[in-house]
Design brief:
Layout: H1 2-28, H2 32-54, H3 61-86, H4 93-109, H5 118-141, H6 147-174, H7 186-223, H8 233-245, E1 253-260, H9 263-270, H10 272-289, E2 295-300, E3 303-309, H11 313-328, E4 343-350, H12 356-372, E5 378-380
Parallel strand pairs: 4-5
Antiparallel strand pairs: 1-3, 1-4, 2-3
Helix pairs in contact: 1-2, 1-7, 2-3, 3-4, 3-5, 5-6, 6-7, 9-10, 10-11
Length: 399
């Protein structure tokens, strides 16, 4: 009995550590609500260790045995809710509640059956198998399939298989004839030891999924320009790197550089609030008009860039003209009705094996030409017949 009681204590302590860990995650990430539900899962399920430890010494063993069963199943039900929120595959509350209540009623009905029989073991373990499989199905049905999600999926499937195996183990190893006998049975020692391993493994996997979300969010935040909602300079270049690596041999893509015309005058005449609104509206225009496969970024101030993979110069020029015309006709909050804000554009193709720096330089020269010719224009850079790579690659763009 001492060994099983010790493992019950360890399981309880481990569960409380996970409760604290998930509450910390809830305070730090967008996975707040799922983390709270999963913290509640560990808190509720850990009560089973208390009930099972008290059970052999209580004059009311039935009460504590049912409570231990209900707390574990209740914890797993909360886990299904949390994973449903995390993976956007919510469980139906009515169905989950009916499953929980029905399983507890079945446990009450089989309480007086000898615990070492197949009949008792089957009906006792089956709800745990079903709820773990149900939780795993949330990941299977979701669109998220990164390595952390796959690890969690396999651990949940292993947990489900563990409860199926316990049906046989309860009969083969002997679970005692009554609930009070369970803690001193060989089966209890095996069950608690394996259970602790699965608790730790699954808990760490769920923490891994949520910590990855925190890291991904932090990285995304560092690559997004807060005012425009587009990629900043760093994010723009990061997104272009893999696209250029797999670009087509015949037509890598096209690059558009654009500047808002006389933007300093907008700030000086109407205030920075109006200037910020111009940036936001132009950014929305870029986002709405560019193809879904394109990447847009605010490189700084009033300078923007759009990369169009597998796009010809003529197609990019048409898009630039469309954006130019839409901007010139746009009414912007904070500006007088007769005030217009225009933009100038430089367009260049990225030729085969050309470093992005060279294409940026040519697009930048075309943009200067558009401004020199009177602004609110689109100018295209000449496509080179051959590429001479610079000795020291560097970013080309105006500060």
């Amino acid at each position: 009995m001492g060994g099983a009681i010790s493992l019950l204590a360890v399981n309880f302590i481990v569960a409380q550590i996970f409760v604290v860990a998930f509450l910390v995650v809830a305070a730090k990430s967008r996975s707040g609500r799922p983390a709270i539900w999963i913290a509640a899962c560990f808190a509720v399920a850990s009560l089973a260790a208390v009930f099972e430890a008290v059970l052999p010494f209580s004059p009311f063993p039935r009460l504590f045995a049912i409570a231990a069963f209900a707390s574990v199943l209740g914890g797993f039900s909360l886990l299904r809710v949390g994973l449903g929120l995390l993976y956007q595959v919510p469980a139906r509350p009515a169905l989950l509640a009916a499953f929980f209540i029905g399983s507890v009623i079945v446990d009450l009905l089989i309480y007086d059956l000898p615990r070492g029989t197949l009949q008792h073991a089957f009906f006792y373990q089956m709800p745990f198998f079903l709820i773990q499989a149900w939780s795993a199905s949330a990941i299977v049905r979701s669109r998220r399939k990164n390595y952390a999600d796959r690890i969690l999926l396999w651990l949940l499937m292993l947990s489900a298989a563990y409860y199926l195996a316990k049906i046989y183990a309860a009969v083969a190893a002997g679970a005692g004839r009554t609930a009070a006998d369970y803690v001193s049975s060989p089966f209890a020692l095996i069950s608690q030891a394996l259970g602790a391993m699965l608790i730790v493994g699954t808990g760490l996997a769920m923490l891994g999924v949520m910590v990855k979300d925190i890291i991904d969010d932090a990285r995304a935040s560092s690559e997004i320009d807060a005012l425009s909602g587009l990629y900043n300079r760093r994010g723009f270049m990061e997104r272009l790197a893999p696209m250029l690596e797999r670009r087509g041999a015949e037509n890598p893509g096209a690059l558009i550089l654009t500047d808002l015309d006389h933007f300093k005058q907008v700030n000086d005449s109407y205030g920075h609030h109006a200037g910020d609104e111009v940036i936001r509206r132009f950014s929305c225009l870029l986002h709405d008009l560019m193809p879904s496969r394109a990447v847009a970024g605010r490189l700084g101030g009033e300078e923007f860039a759009v990369f169009l993979p597998l796009t010809s110069l003529s197609e990019a020029r048409v898009l630039a003209h469309g954006i130019r015309a839409a901007m010139a006709s746009m009414q912007i909050d904070g500006l007088p009705d007769n005030a217009t804000v225009t933009a100038s554009f430089g367009v260049a193709t990225v030729v085969v094996n050309e470093p992005l720096e060279l294409a940026m330089r040519r697009a930048d020269k075309a943009l200067y030409a558009a401004k020199a010719a009177g602004r609110n224009r689109v100018e295209c850079a000449e496509t080179p017949t051959h590429v001479v790579k610079p000795a020291v690659p560097h970013w080309v763009g105006r500060s």
